[in-house]
Amino acid sequence: NVWGVEPTGTPLSWSEFRSAEKGAVVTIKGRVLAWTYDGSYGNGNVFLQDENGGYYAYRLKAALSEYEDYLAIGNEVIIEGKKDVYSGLHQLGQNTVTGLKVVDRTNAGTRPEAKDVTTAAKNGELEPLQSTWATVLGTYSIGSDGYKYIQVGGNKYQIYSLQFHKY
Predict the structure, then answer these.
(1) What is the DSSP letter of 129?
(2) Is residue 114 classed as helix, strand or coil in its secondary structure?
(3) How far apart are CA 55 and CA 31, in angstroms?
(4) Is 25 in contact with 39 (CB distance < 8 Å)?
(5) Contact partners, residue 161, CB within 8 Å, separation at least 6
(6) Which residues fall within 8 angstroms of residue 39, CB to CB, at 6 or more apart?
(7) Residue 94: Cβ within 10 Å count
(8) Rounded to whole angstroms, how far apart are CA atoms 154 and 160?
(9) In the beta sheet, which residues pair with residue 22?
């Protein structure tokens, strides 16, 4: 079990992670923004963020109780696994994680302030902001293909994960 195992590598900066080769073993560190869990597969997906950018780890195998403990929103964690790029999304690949450790629980239950990415979306510059906690002002729609989209200026983006919160 990799949960609680100290990663051996030094955490990469956001730009180092983005430029790492596909298949390279990488170490990332950030605060947990969100996670999803699929009990039928016994794994889930995790979004992390540090001061420079967002990270995504795909299909980490574990029990739901491990997600709830180690990946509580706001916990700072270090995760080591193999770099992958899927449809332009830089991520840790499916079932490649070799270590995951909580390094700080003092911010449990809180997320960083969301970044307003409306201008970047209008300018077609969202790619460097992938996996970050963000807000955007645009027109939301569901396409005939069943996918969710947001239109911002002349650019249309597919939305992978969308949660609505009432404030």
Answers:
(1) G
(2) coil
(3) 10
(4) no
(5) 34, 36, 47
(6) 64
(7) 17
(8) 19
(9) none
Cross-strand pairs, 55: 48
| Spatial separation of the C-alpha atoms in residues 72 and 152, rounded to whole Å | 32
Residue keyed to tokens 């699929």 = 38
pTM across the whole model: 0.84
CB atoms within 10 A of CB 83: 21
What is the C-alpha separation between 114 and 99, in angstroms, rounded?
Answer: 28
Helix (H) / strand (E) containing 134: strand 134-135
Specify the amino acid at residue 16: E
Taking 3-state DSSP, the helix, strand and coil percentages for the chain, each rounded to the nearest 5, stand at: 15, 40, 45
The helix (H) or strand (E) run that includes residue 157 is strand 155-159
The SS3 call for residue 18 is helix
Predicted confidence (pLDDT) per residue in 28-85, tens digit: 999 999 999 999 998 999 999 998 899 999 999 989 999 999 999 999 999 999 999 9
Q: Which residue has the tokens 């307003």?
A: 116
